[in-house]
Amino acid sequence: MAGSKYAYVRNFELPDPLLPGTFLVFRLDGHSFHRFSTEHQFTKPNDVQALMLMDHAARDVMEEYKDIVLAFGESDEYSFLLRKSTSLYNRRESKICSTLTSFFTSCYVFHWKEYFPDSPLLYPPSFDGRIVVYPSSREVRDYFSWRQADTHINNLYNTIFWALVQQGGKTTTDAHAALRGTVSSQKHEMLFKSFGVNYNEIDARFRKGSILVRDIEDVSHKPLKWKKNKAKTKINLLHCDIIKDEFWDARPHLLE
Ligand SMILES: Nc1nc2c(ncn2[C@@H]2O[C@H](COP(=O)(O)OP(=O)(O)OP(=O)(O)O)[C@@H](O)[C@H]2O)c(=O)[nH]1
Ligand SMILES: [Mg+2]
Ligand SMILES: [Mg+2]
What we know:
Helices cover 42% and strands 16% of the residues. The protein has 256 residues and is of the alpha+beta class. A 6-stranded antiparallel beta sheet has the order 4-1-3-2-5-6, sandwiched between helices. Guanosine-5'-triphosphate binds next to strand 1, helix 1 and helix 2.
């Protein structure tokens, strides 16, 4: 059927395929969550309910999109790794990015009440999304190492910062000043000497972030291939190291 005389405008919509045979990393981040967390009175420095809600929404995304093999979450962000061979939405960038961002946001709102039964949503939260294309497993591993290192740096800083303010009675300005120029070992020492806190004993969820990994359940069927999504898989939530080799060596299928 011939279109109307207006149909030519369709030609202005340009295709936006992502390079085939590359790893896709989709990351979303809460929009203005500094304000959102303040208005909804999130616990400082870490609100375990808020983090669990993020994990729940991310798991929903992975249940819906089987080509996501790994996800990493911290603070108001989540990163998702799509397997190299994915043909999701014909690898159209804006389709993948907008649909996944929208679905995650809906799930976040949908489950809000389960995690904050006494604190109704005061306004609708939103998330931004982006997709980065990585050519090889090296960059993918470095990407996830980057996010986990970021989690560690931020969490160490925030933990000592809020201890100085909440228990130490310092103003936020004084707490920032006290930490200026300190290295990691000094922060550990301050935390231990002034507040009796051994950083390494803090909840691993806060120190390592959240890892959602699609593990192959039936390991008797080697080699571990996805085989067109036919392998029986299970999504596990971990708070472990993903920088060292151990995590990846145990799961060669993630970078297939
Ligand atoms: N109290 C508390 N605040 C949190 C928690 N997780 C995230 N936040 C807040 O969310 C912010 C997230 O940082 P960003 O994503 O860099 O900043 P943003 O305000 O969301 O701004 P944009 O992402 O640029 O829109 C943090 O700076 C905190 O203020 C939490 O567990 N507890
Ligand atoms: Mg944000
Ligand atoms: Mg953020």
